[in-house]
Amino acid sequence: MAEKKLMYGNHAMVEGVIAAGCRFFAGYPITPQNEIPELMSIRMNEIGGVFVQTESEISAINMLFGAAAAGKRAMTSSSSPGISLMQEGISYIAGADIPVLVVNVVRGGPGLGNIAPSQSDYYQATRGGGHGDYFTITLAPNSAQDLYEFPRLAFELAEKYRNPALILADGLLGQMMEPVEFSSKPIDPKSLPEKEWALCGCKGRERRVVRSYDLKAGKLEVLNLRRAEKYAKIINKEQRFKTEYCDDADLVIVAYGTCSRVSDAAVKMARDKGFKVGLLRLITLWPFPMDVLGDMAKKVDNFLVVEMSNGQMIDDVKLATECRSRIYFHGRPGGGVPTPPEIYKRIEEVLGGAR
Amino acid sequence: MKMIFGRPLGLTETLQRYCPGCGHGIVHRIIGELLVKLDIRERTIGIAPVGCSVFADEYFNCDMIQPPHGRGPAIATGLKRTRPECIVFSYQGDGDLAAMGTAEIIHAAARSENITVIFINNAIFGMTGGQMAPTTLPGMKSTTSVKGRDIGKQGFPIKVCEMLASLDGPYYLERCAVDTPRNVIRTEKALKTAFANQISNKGFSMVEILSMCPTGWGQTPVQAKKWLGEVMAEYYPLGVFRDLSKEEK
Amino acid sequence: MTKEIIISGFGGQGIVSSGIILAYAGLIEDKHVTFFPSYGAEMRGGTANCSVVVSGEPVASPIVANPDIVVIMNEPSLTRFEPTIKPGGMLLYNKTLIKSQPQRKDIAVVSIEANVIAEELGQARIANMVMLGVMIKKTKLLNLETLKKAQRKRFVKANDEQLALNDKALEKGYGLL
User: Fold this and answer.
1) Is B58's pLDDT higher than 50?
2) Which regions in chain A score pLDDT beneath 70?
3) Measured on CA atoms in the order A49, A52, A57, A62, is the torsion positive or negative?
4) Interface contact A6-C60, CB threshold 8 A
């Protein structure tokens, strides 16, 4: 086992991105993710990578489009208002089937909102976010260790399906320090295979074109249908989650990110008091782990959805369970972070004497 | 029989869909020829704009990418920084470069990205149907300034070369035109310089090209050439606005 | 066993360093730990504070609302955090810089002339290390030797002289009560 280091979540993310073989970062400072560009500027310089502080998030995402179209692993990070600005670019990148990594360290919104942790960008992250028919693979870390490990997973999935990938963190995960183990051998970018679609000059081959449009009659429909097949494949194969104490549960908490670790403590409190409560922690938000929820709904009567928002993921829980179970909600919008006792109180309210 | 004139290898066989008298075709041809003359076609990545020349990704016979409106210089930055061995050019119209992508062009120039930008200024939005462009002249009619651009309400045009020349970053800035054979030859020379600068890692080079849009201007091709020379080039003077190679000598 | 700790004072009093040293010490002793700095406009000129959680279980939330232990380095922090401490918890405060008296009767209160002691050792800025020494002794949270190791993780660029002085401050605090 490698030695554990105490690290800020945002710093763990930087090391994870570099270990994943990424050598291109473009971004614009915004709280609460500034530690990422700050450390990137130092680390990319040390290892011969590219760091560009851009004039806007719009520029940042388009620099990624260029770098990734050239076949290289490229990432940007921002927080909610900045991610809104990137939506145009993400739509084009999705339309051109180019893999990139975008990290959103979510803060309270709408508008300028605040700089406290939040999960209010769930809809944006899981519904494509910009214009057009598309989805982005979305991963939800809940620890500094995840922030270190998920960039690699995100790049692998993004490249496998030629699709943008998102990591949806929040200000709490980014600003917190936690032990991190550098669990895997860093990838040498030179060892990554050249992409058969990358722009690098047409010497010895047909010229390549990367584009998100096709104006010929009926052509875009064909392209979008092909993309729908790709999405179906991702939905089929890549749903990721963790369950805890779910087998005999009368109530299952559904949560991701920060809420999933707070809920974990609430579940233990409830179990100590004799309540049969389980936890479904979602790792992929898109594809949404519908299958496990569908199965659970056959035997679990109650679900409690915990989110740091007014309730967004709850829609997907309702869809996945086809409303066969009772679905309760505990939400803290605008930068509020739930505590284990307050979640426990909700459990008690729902289950009452049923212990 | 020996062929002495034909389509340059730098252009594809695809039929170009431009209006009669449009300047895009002339500039395309110059670039197509230069890709071969400078022997860079096989390591060039071109960036098409959004606008009339959106199909440039089908016309240039090299790797191409089609970005969001105005974002060419940012895409170029991403491409060039990851593939410094490649030659990267961004081909942009006036809506693309001087409206939507104003921030991108200014900052790419300020960073002196080692790229080549070709800026087609025809003072009008061609593709969307002749609306006012950021470069539409005061008093000039368009479908969103039907009585002529009213500077009191619609402001002044942007002179891009002059604006970028106020920055320290750019290595080379020149404004040319394609209204006369003499100016076309001058344009070719400027574009060659702009590509050569990139080949020798000099930094940001941009050539602004005043170009005819007879359809958007409501003129015949012949009238359009005349108007460009007599009216447009008066407002947008031709010439070199920055050439750091002169200072190096 | 889960202990939630808040350390608070002025910027420049080594508040963040104290928190990171505690968290590192927890990590060295193979415990689950988190460190979370206070964040926002209030950091400038007002109080700086941070939350540390040291636990035998995975840590649910690094944000501490009702701490078990509070280490207070200046007057405004006392006003702010005294009411938040869990009944039965512990308040340690820097008596040199705080003139008011803590009011709570349901918590253990420990007062330390941290700046006086630190200056006797030769450096006012190691008052935080004195406080940490007292705290681990009174709470039995972590071992003194671990804290010595942990401060070396935090101050990687410090010279041996400074590290030795920090050790001395930790020891002094540890042996005080």
Assistant:
1) yes
2) 1, 353-355
3) negative
4) no
- Residue B102: which domain range? 24-128+161-213+220-248
Do A178 and A252 belong to one domain?
no
Residues A113 and A248 in one domain: no
Encode C138-174 in three state secondary structure.
HHCCCCHHHHHHHHHHHCCCCCHHHHHHHHHHHHHHH
pLDDT bracket for residue B2 (50, 70, 90): confident
Q: Which residues of B touch A (CB under 8 A)?
A: 12, 41-45, 48, 54, 57-58, 61-68, 71, 74-83, 85-86, 103-104, 106-107, 111
Q: Can you spell out the DSSP letters for A121-141?
A: THHHHHS-SSSSS---EEE--
Residues in C closer than 8 angstroms to A337, CB to CB, are 61, 63
Q: Please give the full DSSP string across B137-198, using - where no structure is assigned.
A: PTT--BTTBTT---HHHH-PPP-HHHHHTTSS--SEEEEEE-SSHHHHHHHHHHHHHHHHHH
* Last residue in a domain, options A168, A191, A214: A191
Choices 3.30.420.10, 3.40.50.2000, 3.40.190.10, 3.40.920.10: CATH for C2-174: 3.40.920.10
Q: Which chains touch A (3 or more CB pairs under 8 A)?
A: B, C
Task: Give chain B positions within 8 Å (CB) of A52.
Answer: 77, 81, 111
Q: Evaluate if residue C68 carries a pLDDT over 80.
A: yes
Residues A175 and A249 in one domain: no
Give residue-wise pLDDT tens across range B121-139: 999 999 999 999 999 999 9
* Per-residue confidence (pLDDT) for residue C177, from 0 to 100: 83
Q: Do B104 and A55 touch (CB under 8 A)?
A: yes
| Tens-place pLDDT, residues C34-47 | 999 975 445 455 67
In this prediction the ipTM stands at 0.95
User: What residues in C contact A175, CB-CB < 8 Å?
Assistant: 36-37, 39
